[in-house]
Amino acid sequence: MSATPQLRQLVEADLPLAMDLKLLAGWNQTEADWRRFLWLCPEGCFVAAVEGRDCGTAVATIFDGKVGWIAMILVHPDLRRRGVGTALMGACIEFLRGRGISSIKLDATPAGKPVYELLGFVDEYQLERRQGTGRAYAQGTVTTLTPSDLGPVLALDREVCGVGRGNLLRRIAEENPSMARVCRSASGDLRGYAMVRPGSSAWHVAPCVATAADAGAQLLRATLAGCLDEPVLLDLVLENPDAAALADELGFTFQRPFTRMYLGENPWPGRPELVYATSGPEKG
Q: In angstroms, what CA-CA distances link 173 with 37, 58, 97, 169?
């Protein structure tokens, strides 16, 4: 009979393990991404071990005290199908429910989706991972984000995502300040924003939000200009057909699908039709 997975909190000393597991999975995260998880919600970060061997990770984050987010469910290939992933998911769900969270979300790969359905998760909408290359484009009305932009950016993000993600967005902007951008109208009203973070194999546009298609186009073009000749990833929400059309126009090709899923209630769906790139499966 297989040994029961043993769980404990993930700490900074576990980052080499976390990086090894993500490398085996072929994912794009860097050590900075793992440090961001620990900074956002250290109590929601877990390691699993089987027979004394550390072999899996998971993270759970809370946004605005309302919505929980689960990500980075990774299990070493040698120890899959031994209940490790299920134990990690159970720990994340228990952690979030223990803090009064009734709406829990994640982005599921096709392989993971049947597992999450058995746990009660249901579909919210579909996403696509696209890959392309940075190119030179005019900046249009896009400028680098300044401290005075942050308040309006967080307000727009709350409207579009349904909950506040201020800590996350501040952290991403602080880590890569030259890669955080805003688009404003001639009268100075905020029309959208974009952020991008480095990955182990590609830059990741995450997130990009705009109130109109032309603003989304300006933001994505300016972002690509900042990643000149380098690989770039973005995750599209198919509820926004303008985003898919723009990705096609910019030469981005399909890599893989995801499904946004939720467990429990979904009273804060936001406005996904205004999302031009999500924050990635790690952060929503």
A: 15, 24, 30, 6
The whole-angstrom separation of Cα 224 and Cα 130 is: 13
Say whether pLDDT at 267 is over 60.
yes
Nearest to 143 by CA among 188, 85, 86, 93: 188
pLDDT over 80 (residue 258): yes
For each of the domains in the chain, give its residue range(s) and CATH number, in order of start: 6-101 (3.40.630.30), 129-277 (3.40.630.90)
Exposure of 124 by Cβ count < 10 A (0-12 exposed, 13-18 middle, 19+ buried)? middle
Whether residue 123 is predicted with pLDDT greater than 90 in this model: the reply is yes
The predicted-structure confidence for 125-135, as pLDDT tens digits, reads as follows: 999 999 999 99
First to last CA, the chain: 37
> Alpha carbon 71 to chain centroid distance?
8
CA geometry: angle 132, 169, 148, nearest 5 deg: 110
Residue 253 amino acid letter: T
Contacts of 277 (CB under 8 A, 6+ apart): 194, 205, 206, 207, 208, 220, 234, 235, 236, 243
Segment 242-266 mean pLDDT: 97
Mean pLDDT over residues 179-193, rounded?
97
Strands 103-108 and 231-237: unpaired
Indicate whether 1 pLDDT > 50. Answer: no
Dihedral (Cα; 48, 53, 56, 61), 10-degree rounding: 40
